[in-house]
Write a sequence for this structure.
């Protein structure tokens, strides 16, 4: 007899997207994860019907060509009766131990090392955890994202002036496409913070220096892409690099990440974290 879907376990995974893999789309990343999970020993739950697929739920889509220090994926596990959902094949599980035991399961610490080799270079699993039952979906709960951007086109002084002008403006009207239709949106309410961080010298002294920006952009009711933000700062600007550094959930005035991570490089600038890029 199969397992009861009501007893499924939701596994939350935090992973990076750095280097050449940044050129892959959100759909490509989903396919990479499907292949990796097929090769893993995890009892992933599958949909029913003529074309079954693993039951995965991704967080906010990362724009193609952008990097990230922390992406998220929820995987639904459906072990057979009596099987340990986070243990090796054949391991049994005492269902009466409940969720508390799952949150501290020793297998959670082993999963990053097991999953990372199954993924392309640049997609490294940092941490796995079991969220509380009843927790909302990643797309619903994440309210804003922090970014580090590197920009070409103007010097640090000129860019700082443009940032000040934008932040003091009541509106920022930008033309963009939504569901195949051209629309004009006011992006100003979604720009929560925007701070110029000065110039960053490249490896070749002859190269033009880039100017670094830190931004926090709201995700609701509609998200703002880094390219759209730059459009509001001037059509002559070129986005050289963009890295999403954090995604934020806010409850009762307290901010936290969907799954915190304090490993090497998390507090470093995006440029240092991106040394693995080609």
């Amino acid at each position: 007899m199969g397992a009861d879907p009501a007893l499924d376990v939701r596994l939350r995974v935090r992973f990076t997207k750095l280097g050449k893999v940044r050129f892959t789309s959100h759909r490509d990343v989903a396919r990479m994860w499907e292949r990796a999970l097929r090769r893993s020993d995890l009892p992933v739950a599958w949909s029913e019907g003529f074309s079954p697929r693993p039951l995965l739920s991704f967080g906010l889509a990362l724009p193609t060509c952008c990097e990230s220090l922390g992406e998220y994926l929820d995987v639904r596990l459906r072990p057979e009766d009596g099987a340990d959902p986070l243990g090796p094949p054949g391991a049994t599980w005492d269902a009466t131990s409940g969720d508390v035991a799952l949150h501290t399961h020793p297998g959670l610490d082993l999963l990053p090392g097991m999953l990372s080799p199954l993924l392309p270079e640049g997609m490294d699993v940092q941490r796995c955890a079991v969220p509380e039952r009843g927790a909302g979906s990643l797309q619903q709960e994440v309210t804003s994202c922090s970014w580090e951007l590197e920009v070409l086109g103007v010097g640090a002084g000129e860019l700082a002036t443009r940032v000040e002008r934008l932040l003091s403006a009541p509106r920022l009207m930008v033309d963009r496409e939504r569901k195949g239709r051209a629309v004009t949106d006011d992006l100003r309410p979604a720009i929560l913070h925007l701070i110029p961080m000065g110039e960053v010298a490249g490896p070749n002294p002859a190269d033009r220096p880039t100017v670094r920006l830190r931004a926090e952009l709201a995700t609701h009711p509609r998200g703002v892409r880094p390219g759209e933000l730059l459009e509001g700062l001037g059509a002559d600007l070129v986005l050289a690099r963009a890295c999403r550094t954090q995604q934020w959930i806010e409850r009762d005035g307290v901010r936290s990440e969907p799954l915190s991570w304090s490993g090497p490089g998390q507090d470093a600038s995006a440029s240092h974290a991106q040394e693995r890029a080609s």
